Amino acid sequence: MDLISSLQEVTKLSHLYYSRQWMFATAGNLSTRDPSTKEQFWITASGKHKGELKVTDFVSVSASDGSLVQANEGLKPSAETSIHQVLYSQMPEVGSCLHVHTIDSNLLEFGVEKAEGYREIPIPPIEIIKAFGIWDEKPNLTMPVFYNHTHVPTIANEIKRYFTVEGIPKVPFLLIEGHGPTVWGKTIAEANKHLEAVHFLLQVMARRI
Ligand SMILES: [Zn+2]
């Protein structure tokens, strides 16, 4: 898939997620690795309404250091670009990262402390986790949940620390408490499949409280 087709696909998802109430107003951010230059990724620009996003509303950022590579005039990278940068740099096979703010994910409370930064939270062994490529009947799965620091690069640093200490998460997503999930996949389609499954999983978890 070329770059324009990739950006068109992500733009379509932005409109879809807006209609599902996953990206109200300017909330959330979506990105795709540049198919020709794997060294950079394209992410939704800051302050763009996700229901009206256009293919020109993306900026290009270096996957290795997060510096701005290319942007149309007046466009700035999203404040949460640092989180995408860590994910692309830690997982070279990842082609897309999607981050949304869903109501159900905000209903879940795990009490992750600021000082600890993150915590592993058990996931119920329900059918939907097969969407993550996990086929064990009763898997002992956990998901990483991070403290929602106001200073977003601090969250990104905690995610980097997680990868260093714990390795790559067994599930293709993480949750920032009181904020929302971020998923990844080899392709945009795979990341979208993961996000739909995460949404279902978090809905179930929120209803069990
Ligand atoms: Zn966010």
- Let me know the largest β-sheet: 9 strands, mixed
Fraction in beta strands:
15-25%
Helix content estimate: 25-40%
Main-sheet strand order equals 4-3-2-1-5-9-8-7-6
Nearest-integer average pLDDT: 95
Bound molecules: zinc ion
State Rg.
16 Å
Compute the number of strand runs. 9
Order of helices and strands: HEEEEHEHEEHEEH
Assembly classification: single chain
Under CATH, the topology can be stated as: L-fuculose-1-phosphate Aldolase
Q: How many structural domains in the coordinates?
A: 1
What is the CATH homology-level superfamily? Class II aldolase/adducin N-terminal domain
Word description of this protein:
Catalyzes the dehydration of methylthioribulose-1-phosphate (MTRu-1-P) into 2,3-diketo-5-methylthiopentyl-1-phosphate (DK-MTP-1-P). Belongs to the aldolase class II family. MtnB subfamily. The chain contains 5 helices and 9 strands, in the order αββββαβαββαββα. By secondary structure, it is an alpha+beta fold. It has one domain (3-208): 3-Layer(aba) Sandwich (L-fuculose-1-phosphate Aldolase). It is globular. The mean pLDDT is 95. The protein binds zinc ion. Residues 28, 80, 99, 101, 179-180 line the site of zinc ion (ZN).
In short:
The chain is an alpha+beta fold and 209 residues long. The protein has helices at 3-19, 81-90, 103-107, 152-166, 188-208, and strands at residues 29-33, 40-44, 58-62, 68-70, 96-99, 118-122, 142-146, 173-176, 180-185. The structure holds zinc ion.
